[in-house]
Design a protein that fits this description.
Two copies of one chain form a homodimer. Chain A has 429 residues and is of the alpha/beta class. Chain A is built from 14 helices and 17 strands.
């Protein structure tokens, strides 16, 4: 049997996935067909042409697309769930920078990234866009581990040349030359699932010169970009002081030439983006990585995500470990709904709360779109699936619909109930 | 060995518990001593007099008091995590009443309450105040199961004589006479851990005549009372229309004679309680069951809990299944902090967010006080403990302090990490 053969099969069970941002496709009993790693669609009666393919019988388990985590910091995984009583800027100084500095030691990185990768394999994430640290060696090692895991990821060596403690800061030129070396070394690895992404930490820690240089690298190496935007009110004020010629936080990226139509881009948070900034994001097809757990834990606020969706902006979900305490995308979906309810009730009655279908959409098709055709079982999409043994979550209700099962899994499920996981047609657990 | 002997032992491990609402007692390596089910205190060096007691060696596991769930609806457990896109009043009509009506069938109740009880045994809850349904038989059966579980609980037969669908409403006289029968039958069971609590559902579904009658029963049978208060803005408006001679929602309970100093009382929610209502609660020593998950899911709002604590009001935490999606008190502690952060950031900058120690306090000593001396390892408290194998939650950090371990458990833990549970000195898992 060849590799291509193994990437072709039929999954039989209940199937739920997003049709669009408001609507779900729900099948109580159906066949999801994967051919060469690509979805052929979902059928209530298996068409003749697929009857030769191996049939995976789930026994009525629930099949949903896997989730895309659009923003997660791999080195922060080790201190997740600690230090949650403080806000962003002191939290970076106290927890983040000291931990990230440790990754200059490759043996520490090896040990720590092993735990991180295992957690991602066990969880509901199939694709992710990952911040590493500033260290080229450790970042390459992380890329190797993620490649081996079967997950599909973007991974970024972090850049920063100001406002970071001496023990962790880079100089501008060194930051750029290390990044170029890293891009070349990553290219030589011949990864099929793991791609580099240019990663200026955020405006406060990147000079314009650095960001302009990174923008050139992004274009030369055809790499996308990821960074942070408008997370916290103190941070936004700081940016306006550091970059007085800009009209918004986003404009600091525009002026540095790194936020533009020709470079695919993820901006994490966008909690406090106002009209002008929203326009910049919309015009440049930026993907917003909405991180409800992180925005709550760090008391940052709650992004007007419903409005973003209605405007047709690209929005995905993210755990943002370790501002987010958990690497579980199941939690991120649940929290997106919950945070939006409190935002609506307490802050802005005009922007409605997210519905379950909307949050599910963002975690699948919404964020998946940054990777191309991902996050759906429609024909032509990369075949990413979770097989869920959700009926083990105790209840007397044996008559739950597929849609009710999906909602219940988001509210009560965790990695214990994931009985199988397929990424781009490849079974990884 | 007698029963009393079995209730005496020494637990050796790391120990964390609340000193008061702001401060924690943290021991990296200590002995928690239980004698006849009562705590003798925590010692870094085991005093001579306890050296004869059986020593339970946890191997450095984390020992904390178990949690008190001050408000949970046992019959709603079966549909938790579903129907979360709607608010309180339609949610009651669509999900709650039809499910609760099923408990007229004792064989259904048996099956459903079995799942509920098992979940509580497996989780972090050691004590709970429980709403059952209006059915005497099913409520008694639930009490038997809870008694057998080893948990310490108050359980209430629900009363309601108006604004409830025909298939589930009671008439006033029938409701009172069933309640008295239930109180007598419960007394005959000779329970040692399970006590009845008078349970008018809430003002909208209880006439003043019914509540006045229940108040008489509460005093005659020396039973406490539990109900709901100021959860949702539509509900509050409805109460003001139903009871036009009252000055606040709480006043509807005062005027019915059921909220008074001589009757211990739990009121769930108090999301929108204003000054006058807060004074009523404070003067009458009412326990507020703060239910952050429920208040979020049903878009009710976020209670000003920090203010309540600062005023010296009694506040405990609650899951409020199934407004709360999860029966896990670990989630309730985490959510209390998180919801208060969003409340502070989005709604009321003057009321600070809760800290981890405050939320931990409410889940232990705060709510535990409704049961007497519970929720602490101070000398004289009932010995309730969770033994946590929290270091199985992956991290490279082997130097975590006991306090950091407790915070991390709240953010990342679940029932998988509870390796032992002791209630009133009795090991129940």
């Amino acid at each position: 049997m060849t590799e291509r053969d193994r990437l072709s099969f039929v999954l039989h069970g209940a199937v739920v996935y997003s049709k669009d941002k408001d609507e779900m496709n729900c099948f109580e009993d159906a066949y999801a067909v994967c051919k060469d790693g690509i979805s052929e669609g979902v059928f209530t009666k298996l068409p003749e042409e697929y009857k030769e393919l191996p049939l995976i019988e789930t026994g009525g388990q629930l099949i949903i697309p896997g989730f895309t985590d659009l923003h997660i910091h791999a080195p922060q995984f080790q201190f997740r769930g600690n230090g949650m009583d403080i806000e962003l800027l002191p939290w970076l100084e106290t927890y983040t920078f000291p931990e990230e500095a440790k990754y200059s030691d490759l043996s520490y990185a090896e040990k720590a990234y092993r735990l991180f990768t295992e957690e991602l394999i066990n969880g509901a994430t199939v694709r992710a866009s990952v911040f590493a640290t500033s260290h080229r060696g450790a970042t390459l090692r992380l890329m190797e581990m993620l490649e081996e895991s079967g997950l599909v990821t973007f991974v970024g060596k972090v850049n920063m040349d100001r406002n970071v403690p001496d023990y962790y800061v880079e100089d501008t030129e060194g930051s750029l030359s290390e990044t170029e070396k890293w891009l070349n070394e990553a290219a030589k690895k011949g990864f099929s699932r793991t791609r580099p992404i240019i990663t200026p930490r955020f405006t406060p820690s990147c000079s314009r010169e650095l960001m302009t240089g990174l923008s050139e690298l992004a274009e030369r190496y055809a790499a996308p970009v990821q960074s942070h935007l408008s997370e916290n009110l103190s941070e936004i004020k700081w940016v306006s002081e550091l970059e007085p010629d800009t009209s918004s936080y986003a404009d600091s990226y525009v002026k540095a030439g790194i936020l533009k139509k020709s470079i695919p881009c993820i901006m994490a948070h966008c909690v406090w983006s106002e009209e002008e900034e929203q326009e910049i994001l919309l015009e440049n097809n930026v993907f917003i990585a909405h991180s409800p757990d992180s925005n709550t834990n760090l008391s940052s606020g709650a992004a007007p995500v419903k409005k973003y969706l209605e405007k047709g902006m690209n929005v995905g979900l993210a755990t943002d470990v370790a501002g987010g305490h958990s690497a579980s995308m199941i939690n991120a979906v649940r929290s997106a709904i919950r945070v939006s309810k409190l935002r609506n009730r307490l802050f802005d009655r005009d922007t409605k709360a997210l519905t379950f279908p909307e949050a599910f959409y963002m975690a699948t098709k919404g964020g998946g779109a940054f990777f191309g055709k991902a996050g759906s079982f429609d024909k032509g999409y990369s075949f990413d699936a979770l097989i869920l043994d959700d009926m083990r979550i105790p209840t007397t209700r044996e008559d739950l619909s597929a849609m009710e099962r999906a909602e219940r899994f988001i509210y009560l499920g965790d990695d214990r109930y994931i009985s199988g996981k397929i990424v781009a047609g490849k079974r990884i657990r």
